[in-house]
Write a structure and sequence with these properties.
232 residues, mainly alpha, Multidrug-efflux Transporter Regulator, Chain: A, Domain 2, 2 domains, two-stranded antiparallel ribbon, 11 helices
């Protein structure tokens, strides 16, 4: 069934009756109660399905499109897979391959290698006082063990301190990041309020994308400011 579901509707026979977006919702809403027309349009934008269009621009779905949607929504709901992984899986099937069912990526909260305080200082090449200052300023939360992100952060603080930017100057950067996180959270409220797995999976997929866009905007503003300060 997966192979059939992965094929888009463009190859459907002309004799096969095509379905409107409302008819597709009617077919799938029993299995996926949270499915809406906007979610179907989102899945189209993400490349999960490519319905045909009438001359007036209305979407028309082939039965193979419906099966492809059913498979994608099932993988998202039951296996917590992001749409990018689902799309690649379906593309492999389209290409005639027989891919293994993909595994859900590790959550941003997954546990990785841990570091004691001494290990953290050694891995980051940081003096103990710098870590103490970072903890006292709230840049790093005190803990018995730390992870790779703490190593990267402390290394960055070491490099910044070498140019006279000490941890107290970095507090505003953390505050800005927390404001950005609040923006992302607010934009995903409609998903975070839901308890279904599909909504959680979609929120987990969109949040990093929004963070990247915010980083991009911040970087542009910073480069513009530097350009005014250091003109060519």
């Amino acid at each position: 069934m997966a192979a059939a579901a992965a094929r888009g509707g463009s190859a459907a026979s002309q004799a096969t009756p095509l379905l409107s977006i409302g008819q597709v919702l009617s077919k799938l809403s029993g299995e996926f109660p949270a499915l809406t027309s906007s979610k179907l349009r989102f899945l189209e934008v993400q490349g999960i399905v490519s319905p045909q269009r009438t001359a007036s621009g209305y979407r028309k779905f082939a039965p193979s499109d419906v099966e492809r949607l059913r498979l994608a929504l099932t993988l998202q709901r039951d296996h917590y897979l992001p749409l990018s992984v689902i799309r690649d899986y379906l593309d492999d099937i389209d290409a005639g391959r027989e891919p293994d069912l993909p595994q859900a990526p590790q959550s941003i909260h997954s546990q990785h290698r841990t570091y004691s305080r001494a290990d953290l200082l050694e891995a980051a090449g940081a003096p103990a006082q710098l870590l103490t200052d970072a903890i006292s300023l709230g840049l790093i939360q005190p803990a018995e063990t730390y992870d790779a992100q703490h190593v990267s952060l402390l290394r960055a603080l070491v490099a910044l301190e070498g140019h006279g930017i000490d941890p107290r100057h970095v507090r505003s950067v953390r505050q800005s990041a927390e404001r950005d996180a609040s923006l992302v959270e607010a934009s995903l409220t409609h998903l975070l309020r839901r308890s279904d797995a599909a909504s959680r999976a979609r929120a987990q997929e969109i949040a990093p994308q929004l963070a990247e866009r915010l980083d991009e905007v911040r970087g542009i503003f910073l480069r513009q400011a530097l350009g005014r300060m250091l003109p060519d």
